[in-house]
Amino acid sequence: MKLALNTYSKYLRPPSIRQFSNRMKGIDDCINLTVGQPDFPMPDVVKQAYITAIEQDQTAYSHNKGLLETREAISQYFESRYGFTYDSEEEIIVTNGASEALDTALRSILNEGDEVLIPAPSYAGYIPLIEMLGATPVFIDTSETNYKITSQAIEHYITSRTKAILLNYPSNPTGVVLSYQDAASIARTLQQHEIFILSDEIYAENTFSKPHVSFAQFPEIRDQLLLISGLSKSHAATGIRIGFLLGPSYLIEKLTFAHAYNCICANVPAQYATIAALKEGITAPQAMNEAYIERKNYLSEKLQALGFQLDAQPEGAFYIFPNISYYTDNDFDFCVDVLEQAHVAMVPGSSFTDLGKGHVRISYAYDLESIKEGMDRLERYLSTRYPTKFKNRSSD
Question: Keyword Transferase on this protein (predicted)?
Fold first, then answer.
């Protein structure tokens, strides 16, 4: 006998990236360029703090919001790094990864029938979380504005049903970042509307040509803003599951209960590791970013030489999002064929909403040697599969 799940369980579907992971099984020499996980080890100082916490039996529950020392370290980090402050006792929750922070926020603010504005192409993981609550994601096409949301677009899409906007810069999948002027304009617009602002800034430390601009830098929207961050990308710590959820005390008070009823508290040894990461390990992202920049520059030049177009240059995160329409508009079939014929795995752009069609996402969170081998295989594939187009391609 099979029992029925709730109505919204129909929105629970396997992530498209995982679908390709499954297709890779049995391909022993596959070059996997799909996953957004740093290829660096977690910094030694962070590892040691984690180990020490376990050795000293620091494994009991913490406060629901997290260890006060951890919240103080988070508060001090944002103040010294970006110039804004959150109260460590009233305005910060330590979560089990940024994903849990996002889930806690959405479950706390959304009602059935609400709409959430999302600039697209967008990280696909947001969508089921919203749909499972009976709310609707509304995608804002950013393809004509270098994948950056604009004030004009926000004004066009806001309705009486809009409950929140979910922003993600640096962006997954495009790698674009916002300038201070971009973010300030958006903040001025959002201040005029009674909606929540969820800013997923998990890639904040992975910016290359300019400093990250956080929406928390704009006091006029702080009462609307829930800021989400964590250690997964900045400190190659995806597996220890540490996220930060910051917001005004009137929101954090209630969100703490949603977090507590779900998981009581965040991983306690990892909370001690967080203190080390944000103090002694604060410079760790710099070395990673140097490698990412080298890989990004190689990919940018190589992909354009192969006939792909870059609608916008990535300046953060560790993704590049080339337009493949010179060869084909069917990004899913293209990725399947490249995987099966060339043994290179990429993510179809349509995995990031229909507004990503005709593109692929390539992660450069892999060593440069593997990336170069993947591009060599892709070049051989294109020359064989599309010989005329490949011969006549423009490499400008």
Answer: yes
Residues of the chain with CATH 3.90.1150.10: 7-41+284-386
User: ∠ at Cα 357 (355, 359), nearest 5°?
Assistant: 115
Phi, psi of 327 (to 5 degrees): -95, -45
The structure tokens 């390539």 sit at 362
Q: Which CATH class is domain 7-41+284-386?
A: alpha beta
DSSP state of 353: B
Whether the full predicted model's pTM is greater than 0.90, yes or no, is yes
Fold of 59-278: Aspartate Aminotransferase; domain 2 (3.40.640)
Considering the chain, tell me which residue range(s) the CATH 3.40.640.10 domain(s) occupy.
59-278
| Residue 117 scores a pLDDT above 90 | yes
The number of beta carbons lying within 10 Å of the beta carbon of residue 249 is: 12
Question: Measured between alpha carbons, how far is 112 from 135 in angstroms, rounded to an integer?
Answer: 5
Hey, what are 394's tokens? Answer: 């423009």
Sign of the dihedral through C-alpha 342, 173, 178, 367? negative
